[in-house]
């Protein structure tokens, strides 16, 4: 699959593919993992622009306070919750 996005988006999306099924990371954890520790908001924006959901699993990224945040895939936040429950994530 050839991905199209900005350099930053591609970096975020590549990392999202490494998040194992049944686990979640926060936007901040993703920012730290891609070596841009102050870019949690930009990570959230990259997730929001992800046209490849759920193949690139942005549904596995949540807010630091434990709430779901948004979901750009079909079905919105309800679908995000459904996907996480399907993966047995305690939300």
Compact description:
The chain is mainly α. The protein is about 40% helix and about 5% strand.
Overall description:
- The protein has helices at 7-16, 27-33, 40-48, 76-86; strands at residues 25-26, 61-62.
- The protein is mainly alpha-helical and 91 residues long.
- The protein has a single domain, classed as Winged helix-like DNA-binding domain superfamily/Winged helix DNA-binding domain (Arc Repressor Mutant, subunit A, Orthogonal Bundle), CATH 1.10.10.
- It has a two-stranded parallel ribbon.
- The N and C termini lie far apart (31 Å).
Q: What is the count of structural domains?
A: 1
Beta-sheet strand percentage? under 5%
Helix content: 40-55%
CATH topology: Arc Repressor Mutant, subunit A
Q: Walk across the major sheet and give the strand order.
A: 1-2
CATH superfamily: Winged helix-like DNA-binding domain superfamily/Winged helix DNA-binding domain
Proper CATH architecture: Orthogonal Bundle
**Termini gap:** 31 Å
List the uncertain runs: none
User: H/E series, N to C?
Assistant: HEHHEH
Tell me, rounded to a whole number, the average pLDDT.
95
Number of helices: 4
Coarse structural class? mainly alpha
- Biggest β-sheet: count, sense, barrel? 2 strands, parallel
The CATH C-level name is Mainly Alpha
Quantity of strands, as a count: 2
Cα Rg: 12 Å
The backbone outline, from C-alpha atoms, is: globular
């Amino acid at each position: 699959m050839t991905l199209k996005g900005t350099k930053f988006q591609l970096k975020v999306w590549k990392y999202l593919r490494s998040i194992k099924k049944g686990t979640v990371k926060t936007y901040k954890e993703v920012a730290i993992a891609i070596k841009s520790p102050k870019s949690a908001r930009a990570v959230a924006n990259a997730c929001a622009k992800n046209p490849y959901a759920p193949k690139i699993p942005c549904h596995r990224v949540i807010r630091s306070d434990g709430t779901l945040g948004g979901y750009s895939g079909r079905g919105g936040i309800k679908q995000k919750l459904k996907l996480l429950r399907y993966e047995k994530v305690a939300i």
